Amino acid sequence: MQDADVLIVGAGPVGTALALELALHKVSFRIIDRDPVRSDKSRALVVQPRTLELLNRHGAAQGLISRGRIAHGAAFFVNRKLVTKLNLDDLGTTDTEFPLPLMISQVQTEHFLDECLAKYGIRVERPVVAKDIVQDDDAVTATLEMPGGNIETARFKYAVGCDGAHSVVRHKATNLTFEGAAYAQDFILCDAHIRDSCMPQDRFSACLGSGMVAFFPLGDGIVRVIASGNNMTADKGEPQLEHFQKFLEDFAPEGCGTLYDPVWMTRFHLHHRGVNNYRDRRLFVAGDAAHIHSPAGGQGMNTGIQDSINLGWKLAAVLHGRAEEKLLESYNAERFPVGQTLLKGSDKMFSLGTSTNPIFTRLRNFLLPHILPWVTASPSRRLSMFQFLSEFGITYREESPIVGTARDFGGPVKGGDRLPDGKLKNAKGEETSVQGLCVGAPHHLLLFAGGEENTAATTETLEDVRDKVQELVKSEVETHIMAATNPSSATGEATTYTDVDATVHAQFGFTKSPGYVFVRPDGYVAHIGFLSNLGELLAFLKA
Question: What family name appears in the similarity comment (predicted)?
């Protein structure tokens, strides 16, 4: 007897994000966590713009933003002197509602996700421990230790490990490895109040010398200080507030402030490891269960949440009989390269900032005051960095077996790319946006009439395209027509929107010719092309 379709082990941000996706798609699941309550200690501190976009598919990202602080960039100090500021708010990023990262404690992020999940009438089961996970050809059998010590055996179609570096799901998956190593450095961390500080309050600061201090303003007069080096972290005892104050005085500029009333202090090590595959038959891993790395760039939690969003709609499609099980192979095909890029990218940034080699640190501290201002002075170089940090640059163009681009389509957006946002108006003149339309569980078909009036497709033509697509797709599809002129009405199942000045047409590459964009439930383009390539879309959907 099957207990539910999916077992989610671990209810951190990654597990809760997966629960949200499954709830959205009306998949039966259980989500368990071994801890009786959520931790009040915050690990991750940044929600990146792409994650905000994806969470906003549940219609509530502004509620999260109101609890945090927008980060406008970073400041870099070498030998206590300001070398440069990395500004992210002057890059002209217009294809999103969320152009900047959000600095917010993981505690607040988890509370927000719990509130979203509660809207579906679902709560995490606590404290429940997965003692054993065994898969066979038909299902997964989980042995669960319930509150009070009672043992329950339950059956599921699939199990997903969102349970961190020591994942029981990964350990029980016989075909998964977790290769990597520990970093040599030791770190101390402190969340504390601060007074009389000259440090920037709208951005992260990195202070380099013979050691390293990272400084994060958290709001309400509280900051996080992470430090390494200076011979202090070699002491294995519990860190004291004076240790952090000494780090600030040694590496931060004069007037960095006085720490007091600490909220949390700890010592930790870091590892860099990754799995060889995100799937072993009926077992999947996501987040730290699949990849652990340094916190450089604030990528870890965000990548894990996006793992879950990628997997959630695919599990739903298979479980509801709308897709064959081979669809699940695309989870590893799409997310494994993202995890590998993350591991390599964060490792490079981390090694540059935290090296304990005295020769290297002296050379680094000599060169950075010359190199960093050159790097940050260029908008194109800053934009390139922002694409990585924001995770807007993640694309499945090359690796994915389930995306495509019509052969003669040369527009800026390709199959596998993130769906860019753009402003639209409905028939009543009310403002909406591309991403604002592409929400919920369905796939979305965007039909562009064309930006030039003499070549624009008629509404009848576009509705005929809609009908042909919906005949082939088993999943629910919502169709939206984009016209460069004012729409007269909403017709049938397709609503027409005005693309003022054909800006959105230009964003996608449909200024001169009408086109289509078929959008996945996770906000990525499944297929794109001109209407003259419609046969390629239909063949793609059949396959």
Answer: Belongs to the PheA/TfdB FAD monooxygenase family.
